[in-house]
Amino acid sequence: MSAKMYKNKKRSKSHGTQNEIPNVNCLNGTCIVTGYQYYTITKNNLVVNQGYKAKFYYIKNFLLQHTENCSSVLDIGASNGLVSFVAAQAGYPIVHALDHDLDCIQVITKIKRHLQIQTVFPQVYSFGDDHSPADIVIVGALIHWIYSCTALYGNFDEITRYLRGLTKKYLLIEWVNPNDPAIRSFHHTSFNRDVIKEPYTRANFLASMKKYFSSQKVHSVNNTRELFLCVV
Ligand SMILES: C[S@@+](CC[C@H](N)C(=O)[O-])C[C@H]1O[C@@H](n2cnc3c(N)ncnc32)[C@H](O)[C@@H]1O
Predict the structure, then answer these.
(1) Helical segments of 46-101, H only
(2) Long-range pairs, 205-211, Cβ under 8 A, ≥24
(3) How many CA atoms lie within 13 A of 229 on its CB side?
(4) Smallest Cα–Cα separation from 128: which of 144, 96, 108, 150?
(5) By CB distance 3.0 to 4.6 Å, which of 70, 97, 103, 149 could disulfide with 122?
(6) Structural domain of 92
(7) CA of 82 to the centre of ligand 1 (A)
(8) Residue 2: its pLDDT value, please?
(9) In angstroms, what is the span from residue 79 Cα to ligand 1's centroid?
């Protein structure tokens, strides 16, 4: 059987894979964003309205601590751009917001224009596409999608080698455990069994991160999700 990347029939026009529909309403300098990511943003402030607030505060603090030695950020699987706008507000002059969902990219573009945030560069992108590297690369809640569902890697070595090529200094990446409720119900990691070259396990994920980076766990998102900081 030949491998097929997952397509969400309800989101086929925008190539979106999440069920949540990205949306933004902008008025008088405030944008209210809904979809997979929920937040409210003005030119100089961003309030997270969704779950996993501590994850975004961890990322915000990390970004705030590295403005002296870093200037560029790649937010891969940016969704509605929450992390990208946090990076822009932290002062990074180049922030690439990358996602394959055209609706997300349009939401980010609308916010950028309304609030005149020139430092965020939204772009339709599929994981694995060529891109210029950045000092900081952030990959939140994407690993389970690209393993064998919206990309066809089926192993961590190629994923990590690609990310190493994009990372000049730091990679912040979220591990999503096979027992995570999202994976248990949607089965992202066995979507294309034929492409799987190694099991989707934390040990295999960590082994590949350690091959290309010096890596350590820095934050527990919940029981099944963890953020790892990987240093070049
Ligand atoms: C679960 S959401 C995570 C969003 C954000 N990174 C976060 O941590 O909140 C995954 C995002 O990755 C995008 N995505 C999934 N597979 C992708 C792929 N192969 N290439 C590019 N983007 C992808 C989805 O459109 C979605 O916006």
Answers:
(1) 53-65, 82-90
(2) 205/143, 205/156, 205/175, 207/156, 208/155, 208/156, 208/157, 208/159, 208/160, 209/156, 209/160, 209/173, 211/157, 211/160
(3) 13
(4) 150
(5) 97
(6) 9-231
(7) 12
(8) 77
(9) 6
Strand partners, 74: 96, 137
How many domains is the chain partitioned into structurally? 1
Provide the 8-state DSSP code for 174: E
Longest dimension (CA), the chain: 53
| The ligand 1 atom nearest the CA atom of 36 | 2
**Amino acid, res. 53:** K
* pLDDT tens string 165-224: 999 999 999 999 999 999 999 999 998 999 999 999 999 999 999 999 999 999 999 999
User: 136 pairs with which residues across the strands?
Assistant: 73, 170
Helix, strand or coil, per DSSP, at residue 16: coil
* CATH number, domain containing residue 172: 3.40.50.150
Ligand 1, atom 9: closest residue by C-alpha: 140
Q: For a substitution probing ligand 1, which of 99, 129, 172, 174 has the most ligand atoms within 8 Å of its CB?
A: 99
Residue 44 CA, ligand 1 centroid: distance in Å: 25
The answer to the question of residue 141 being in a domain is yes
Task: Name the residue with the closest Cα to ligand 1, atom 27.
Answer: 79
Residue closest by Cα to atom 3 of ligand 1: 141
pTM to 2 decimal places: 0.97
Pocket of ligand 1 (CB under 6 A): 16-18, 36-37, 77, 79, 99-101, 104, 125-127, 140-142, 145-146, 150-151
